[in-house]
């Protein structure tokens, strides 16, 4: 498929370049297992040059006005929308999600860019009342400097959008490393930034060895901030490495989202929310419901309805217009889902629907509902990242809250109730950074996205989303 956003080179200092060694990595279409193209297998040296380019560009970029940066970001926003079809097709091709979801992601990327184009002009300092008659206290805001961004394969465009946009809005320059499975949607940002007219070196994108590129980004004293979205496991490794240079860090890590349905809830609405929350991107999002906790009295009805709706999902290649569930990212992901199902069955759970590889073969898996799930099962404890929905029974509100919180994660939680007092009680008791009440899909640029506990540090989106890219400077002006 000819796509002008498909680039097979790094974007460093405004130029499209190969790896020094000319070595490449194949990029595979998860729906067909066919090679789409290649990207450079870069390492330390390419990353070092990208950092140097970002550092040089920062010296002038930081002095641009907020209005200039805002206007460039608006142009970038317009370009994304004008080319959303090509960008969405590229995304589906390398990631697998249905084209409608890919288009939604590209629009979300545009929305982040527009939001931060607006926020760029609202980074205010302060003049604080001084305790001294002859001195003034000023608080000013500055961009932190060169930002490193490492992003995952599940949202290869929008995860970069919510790092790039606030960084550029704040006056920072960026070196980005997209996920190895989905580098083209990352590299497409290079094409877009070039077309929008961002000066060379302001945005740099390097593909290749995660370890080598990651180390260079973490240990470089020039890079002043690392923003990462990915697994908690790798996040912890990167955090430790960033300690050496005391970098600012933002971490969007794993989740284990509970979805609680109380017996006073509107069950049909809960099932509808459950389907979107669970099966978006075939369950491969960090805010996807991981475990359903359903109150005893409505448990059987909920399982039955959820299984019935799950059975209606049309599985197929993402580029086919009727598809609602694409393939998983790779065979490893399929094997992992199988392992979780096996573990649940061994420990006494049942399969309400699905439970095996899809007849289409390859990376396709049947959307699955597991009934009778218990806290001791791996699918309740670990992040699933696949289309399986374990459902567990509870008796009381206290039990539901305690079980929802019995995890090291704290990203998103959902619950359904018609009782206002309960809504406030439960909302206040959930140790999660984001809560959906009677809603299963809550992510939007206006809301601050981010987790508690081991799910992360910092917020992306919202008014707060630019804070992590800004240093606050206190100035005492004396002798007045
Ligand atoms: P996922 O399970 O979503 O693939 P990962 O945490 O493995 O999550 O990957 C997220 C991003 O982190 C990807 O861009 C990946 O290439 C990168 N990554 C993986 N391992 C490392 C590492 N050791 N150092 C730096 N980046 C890494």
UniProtKB/TrEMBL annotation:
<dbReference type="InterPro" id="IPR016162">
    <property type="entry name" value="Ald_DH_N"/>
</dbReference>
<feature type="domain" description="Aldehyde dehydrogenase">
    <location>
        <begin position="16"/>
        <end position="475"/>
    </location>
</feature>
<comment type="similarity">
    <text>Belongs to the aldehyde dehydrogenase family.</text>
</comment>
<dbReference type="InterPro" id="IPR016161">
    <property type="entry name" value="Ald_DH/histidinol_DH"/>
</dbReference>
<dbReference type="InterPro" id="IPR050740">
    <property type="entry name" value="Aldehyde_DH_Superfamily"/>
</dbReference>
<protein>
    <submittedName>
        <fullName>Succinate-semialdehyde dehydrogenase (NADP(+))</fullName>
        <ecNumber>1.2.1.16</ecNumber>
    </submittedName>
</protein>
<dbReference type="GO" id="GO:0009450">
    <property type="term" value="P:gamma-aminobutyric acid catabolic process"/>
</dbReference>
<dbReference type="Pfam" id="PF00171">
    <property type="entry name" value="Aldedh"/>
</dbReference>
<dbReference type="InterPro" id="IPR010102">
    <property type="entry name" value="Succ_semiAld_DH"/>
</dbReference>
<dbReference type="InterPro" id="IPR016160">
    <property type="entry name" value="Ald_DH_CS_CYS"/>
</dbReference>
<dbReference type="InterPro" id="IPR015590">
    <property type="entry name" value="Aldehyde_DH_dom"/>
</dbReference>
<dbReference type="InterPro" id="IPR016163">
    <property type="entry name" value="Ald_DH_C"/>
</dbReference>
<feature type="active site">
    <location>
        <position position="252"/>
    </location>
</feature>
<keyword id="KW-0560">Oxidoreductase</keyword>
<dbReference type="InterPro" id="IPR029510">
    <property type="entry name" value="Ald_DH_CS_GLU"/>
</dbReference>
<dbReference type="GO" id="GO:0004777">
    <property type="term" value="F:succinate-semialdehyde dehydrogenase (NAD+) activity"/>
</dbReference>
